[in-house]
Specification:
With 326 residues, the chain is α+β, with helices and mostly antiparallel strands. The chain is built from eight helices and 17 strands. Helix 2 packs antiparallel against helix 3 and helix 5 crosses helix 8.
């Protein structure tokens, strides 16, 4: 008899997860599945007619995704609230306080610009204790994260979860109406052969970041290393997922348009850095792990380079060599 597929609910039945964590993850999964079915039926994205806290045009799908997550998380005992890319302030979802309550850091629809052309996108989440109330908890460093992961909306819908120093992947089965475990203990290769960067921006990176990229691109098999290929979709989740499986590096350093970096610390850089750390990979801002950065405000941005240890350490070394004073 075929072994029954292990669903996310079975997997979370493991005592390592608290009741608040279990209910929060199941709520995220319900929202992720709903968003996937909306996207699968969907027309191309359209502007929602207002800008978000970052001054960016919001797409209708950004609002739909945010609403699905907030609605599901509002029914979870133990989930205190959400810090979302689409909401200016942390949003309290629980009617009353509990000692074990959690805060969810959320990018409801990462890479939503790709939906102008039915492209790849995802959702990113981080879960941490809501110690000291929502406002204080929204400013904790990434070292406070207990769980993190993402949904990838692609040829299939995946949920990738980092918990207890390991990374597992689940596939959404519409027939079952559930996520089932498909890959266990994912490990990011020590070194890879692909890089994911918006190369058009590289001209305005720091000279050390530019020379790091030039060295990587000029790498040839003659040097005993791989010959790198560029693979860039414009969606952090999709690019990082490929790097997680095949090795290599995703990089969005600071540039002239985004001198602090483009990606947001609390709900993009930190959850993805937590996933790569649990999978044996690495992440850096060029100076330190994003997980150690004190956020000046909930929507702060940082430079982000993540992937295989080899490539990330070489980026950090290049940046360090440009700062002799350090
Ligand atoms: P959001 O879509 O959540 O705003 O994320 C930002 C993002 O789209 C990342 O997913 C992606 O890595 C990056 O911006 C792409 O930026 P660019 O269009 O400058 O290459």
């Amino acid at each position: 008899m075929l072994a029954r597929e292990l669903t996310l609910t079975d997997y979370l039945g493991d005592s390592a997860f608290s009741s608040a964590e279990t209910h929060t993850l199941l709520a995220l999964a319900r929202a992720g599945a709903r968003i996937a079915s909306v996207l699968a039926r969907g027309k191309r994205a359209a502007f929602a007619g207002h800008d978000n806290v970052h001054g960016e045009h919001v797409r209708d799908y950004d609002v739909i995704a945010n609403d699905h997550f907030v609605k599901e998380l509002s029914q979870v005992p133990g989930c205190a609230g959400v810090l979302s890319e689409e909401l200016a302030e942390p949003f309290r979802t629980a009617s009353h306080q509990r000692a074990d309550e959690l805060l969810v850091f959320l990018d409801p629809l990462d890479g939503s610009a790709n939906l102008d052309a039915h492209g790849l996108c995802g959702s990113i989440f981080g879960i941490a204790p809501a110690t000291g109330g929502l406002t204080a908890a929204a400013l904790q460093t990434g070292q406070g994260l207990r769980l993190a992961g993402y949904f990838l909306y692609s040829s299939a819908t995946l949920m990738v979860l980092a918990a207890h120093e390991r990374v597992d992947a689940f596939l959404y089965d519409p027939a079952l109406g559930a996520f089932t475990l498909i890959e266990q203990n994912l490990r990011c290769p020590e070194r890879g052969k692909l890089y994911a960067v918006n190369e058009a921006r590289a001209r305005t990176w720091s000279p050390s970041a530019q020379s790091w990229l030039d060295q990587l691109k000029s790498q040839s098999t003659a040097d005993g290393g791989p010959r790198y290929s560029l693979r860039y979709t414009g969606a952090l989740v999709a690019d990082a997922h490929r790097v997680l499986l095949e090795g290599g590096v995703f990089a969005y350093p600071a540039d002239a348009a985004s001198p602090q970096g483009k990606l947001r610390l609390q709900y993009e850089a930190n959850p993805m850095s937590f996933v790569f750390r649990a999978a044996g990979g690495a992440a850096t801002t060029g100076r330190t792990s994003p997980l150690d950065v004190e956020p000046p405000h909930p929507h702060a941005r940082v430079p982000l380079v993540l992937g295989s240890r080899h490539e990330v350490e070489r980026f950090e070394a290049a940046e360090r060599s440009a700062r002799p004073s350090d």
